[in-house]
Amino acid sequence: MDPLTGESSMKCPYCGTSVVIPENLKKAKTEEPAPQGNLFSGLDMGQMLGYGAQWSQVVQLARQGKKEEAIKKYMSFSSISESDARRTVEGLASSQVYEVSSGASYVNAQIAPIMSSYADTAKTVTKWSIGLSCGITAFVMLIIIVVVGFSLWAAYKAF
């Protein structure tokens, strides 16, 4: 396994489980210039997870047009340079917001009837399987009763 530079864990290529990389096996980070095309290039997203509330405020300030305030807020909780913070805030201010909750009506309209149909099918299959298993059990019991009865009758006739 070849861990990526600066990563603390990686996915095992053989079994797919997450593997923690010991400190002595980690590769040292090399500073490379961030590509200009990606808004979040050069950011340590793992570090950003701990700053969720502050990051939310930075995004809100950038979208409201308060870019200088957003840059200062961003720099206050991260170790990013002012130029990188400015570039990130500019990208946030000019990015388009997508409404995720609008898909909920599609999910309810399209998926709910399918799930209802599957639930009805499962109920029907369960009823049939219980009925069939009870029928098979009754048939086996009848055969046992006939065999035991015939054996007792034959034994009685033998005396």
Please tell me about this protein's structure.
With 159 residues, this protein is mainly α. Among the domains are: 1-30, no CATH class; 43-94, no CATH class. The protein has 5 helices and 2 strands, in the order E-E-H-H-H-H-H. A hairpin with a 6-residue loop joins strand 1 (9-11) and strand 2 (18-20). It is elongated, with a radius of gyration of 34 Å.
What features would you highlight for this structure?
159 residues, mainly alpha, 5 helices, elongated
Strand order of the largest sheet: 1-2
Radius of gyration: 34 Å
Q: How would you sum up the global shape? A: elongated
What structural class do you assign from the helix and strand content?
A: mainly alpha
| Total count of strands | 2
Distance between the termini: 83 Å
Instruction: Give the fraction of residues assigned to helices.
Output: 55-70%
Order of helices and strands: EEHHHHH
Oligomer: single chain
User: What amount of the residues lies in strands?
Assistant: under 5%
Helical stretch tally: 5
- Specify the biggest β-sheet: 2 strands, antiparallel
Low-confidence stretches: none
Give the averaged pLDDT, no decimals: 77
